[in-house]
Amino acid sequence: MKKMNKKEFKQCFSRRLAEKFAMEVSDASPSELYQTLGSLMTSAYSQDWRQTWQDYRDAEQKQSYYFSIEFLPGKMLKSNLLNMGWLETVEAGLLELGIQLDDLAEIEPDMALGNGGLGRLASCFMDSIASTGLPGNGNGIRYEYGLFKQRFVDNYQVELPDEWLQKGNLWEVRKESKAVNVRLGGNVYLSSDEMGNLTPHYQDGMVVRAVPYDTGMVGYQNNIVNTMRLWSVEIPAEEEGNYRSVEARRTVEDLTSVLYPDDSNEAGRRLRLSQEYFFVSAGVQSILRYYKELKQPIDKISQYVAIHINDTHPAMCVAEFMRLLIDEENVSWERAWNLTQKVMSYTNHTIMAEALEKWSIPMMKSVCPRIYQIIEEIDRRFVAEMTGVQSFDLIQRTRIIQNDQVHMAHLAIIGSHSTNGVAKLHSDLLKSVVLHDFYELYPARFNNKTNGIAMRRWTQLANPSMSKVLDETIGKTWRKTPGDLRLLLNYENDDQVLNNLAAAKLTNKKRLAAYIQENCGVEVNPHAIFDVQIKRLHAYKRQLLNLLHIIKLYLELKENPDLPIEPRVFIFGAKAAPSYHYAKSIIKVINETASLINNDDSIHNKLKIVFLENYNVSLAERIIPAADVSEQISLASKEASGTSNMKLMLNGAVTIATLDGANVEIRDAVGDDNIAIFGLTEEEVYQYYENKTYHAAAIYEQDNVVRRVIDTLIDGTIPNIHSEGQEIFDSLIKYNDEYFVLRDFEAYCIAQMSIDKAYKYQRRWLQISLRNIANAGRFSSDHTVQRYAEDIWQIEPVFAHKDDRGVTKH
Ligand code: GPU
């Protein structure tokens, strides 16, 4: 990448502005300035982008393709500047032109083609794959509308469309020449020649054009630029005649119109299945097209290509790859199957039964009939192969087609060589419970890859004040090698360092306080504990447990306004799926409780509740550096991993957590004294399931504190929640509290008291915070993707193929 000094940058910038808009800096709007800067950047890295691709091709590098129905990159301006090595120069240069870089960053819409953890993980991986020099690509859908914008009206969640493409997208490049056709619907018949070879014949249905839009994934100061390819649907020119009516066009355009806003809930809609097949088929076709350009025999394809199935949404990759090999490349079933299993790998992201994707046979037959035929044949052969070797029952439980449904996870596991979970506990549960039958069949396929986070975004970009303290204390190597954060442990008794970290935290808290004041009209004390729960709104994540504890504190303060507790600001950020009634009721109740508490002067500002609207990646970047406490309180066994837990510890927040998902590994990293663990263990939860001995109503009756708190949901203490309060009350008492909120309540309150106590001893608190930062390096997604590369994809960094000194050729 071309390095520029400040003077050169200013010249280039002014010249580009004049070329693009025929303007002077002083006349340009932030939007025009943003576009100018963006175009300067993309033309600067496009050289490297081309070169990276050429290097992979020349070296005949094996490449991986990460298929994901969600990507959640957030804004890219500053992260690209950072990775290009331009950030400081540009920031300073712009300032001399009278421009604040942050004002330009404001212009960029948050790219939100994902719902939450799963999509954000995919984007952290994209950053890390490029930054570690790995030849890996993303493959997904270019949704016209991203995740809805959340507004609160009368304290209810209201969803507005996210028209993120309205002003264009600087970072993408439309690749008309790489478009492919995808067939959907209709019927298919097989004919057989004298050799018994089957040929499919298609009837009716539609052919749509999949056009790729490529976005450069800029590696961290290593001149590598990989590709995230997102597909958009169009009507093929030759078919225009068939799509004269508005409705007919609409059925096609709808395909890549909206991201399904259901997080880990199967959308259950024909359109969703069509979306899945659309991006799977387009992606696999384009991979095969590229492979054929290499002029290698088809039997070697597994030495060149690895396809990763991110959760089950792209599981049809298995069948589509088979289809292309047998129908288009005339490969025999046996050879094709062998190659498919070698190429494919799969990650499971949840144990929640309702999220395990299944499709009805009629639905699948009508969306992608040939794919269904192939799946039927995979299933038939699976049963035949296992019969006589495994028990009848085991075969019935593991086959792909059961009760008129296609089980996508079964397809992904049977059709691949690797199945991984996303945290140690989660991967163990897959083996012992959720996918136990498959573990019996294929023990060697199972492995763990604990999630990770793109450290650079969550420190250098989001938290410059802490980053500066780190530089001054331990030098700058942590910026490239996050493991070096451990050097900080040498300073745990250094008051100067502790105070510097505290000052950085306070700066961030003041900044967030100003944002809260401006956006919610609530004044918060930056010296109060900032207690943060940010994640999708889900019953299993138990925002309700957090709320009930807040209500308990409130009732206590009402009785005794001088209660010696540290002032706290409870901060929530969460979107609920628009169709998830219960989750929306929780939002309403939290918001109403906030109105009540925030306006009650009698408690002397000891408690505040802030529910920030429209939680997204950019907002996370504001909240996380300001957090003192990180709430990770899902019912043990339910959260596959969690990743906000990692981001928060990295920024010095102290975790209060159940032993769920990656929390277990965070505890192992920091030690019991530097985290507040509470609640049922995963084993205890499973015991309850087995004995069926949980009675929430009994806790309610016997525990006065619980009863007083729960009653506020229905006794008018909290205004305006007549139906929502009742709904939540019933979920706990009448429907026996599916997520053991009441069972964990007391333990949670005790853990919260220990947090309160620890915060009072500021020096000790700061030490705990420091140890959290110091031990967060192991959760770098650089590390995670390297494990995927070595264990699953068998791909190597491109540097390995560069000259001996490791110098890149660019
Ligand atoms: N996750 Br399945 C999602 O965000 N969406 C989904 O549809 C499914 C899982 C999350 C898990 O809930 C979370 O625990 C995990 O950290 C994340 O995926 C990434 O693995």
The CATH architecture of the largest domain is 3-Layer(aba) Sandwich
Number of helices: 31
Write down the Rg.
27 Å
Strand content: 15-25%
**Highest CATH level, the class of the largest domain:** Alpha Beta
Keywords: Allosteric enzyme, Carbohydrate metabolism, Glycosyltransferase, Pyridoxal phosphate, Transferase
Enzyme class: transferase
Pfam family, one: Phosphorylase
Catalytic activity: [(1->4)-alpha-D-glucosyl](n) + phosphate = [(1->4)-alpha-D-glucosyl](n-1) + alpha-D-glucose 1-phosphate
Quick tags:
Glyco_trans_35; glycogen phosphorylase activity; pyridoxal phosphate; Glycg_phsphrylas; alpha/beta; 810 residues; 6-stranded parallel sheet; single chain; disordered C terminus; allosteric enzyme
Briefly say what this structure is.
Keywords: Allosteric enzyme, Carbohydrate metabolism, Glycosyltransferase, Pyridoxal phosphate, Transferase. It is built from 31 helices and 25 strands.
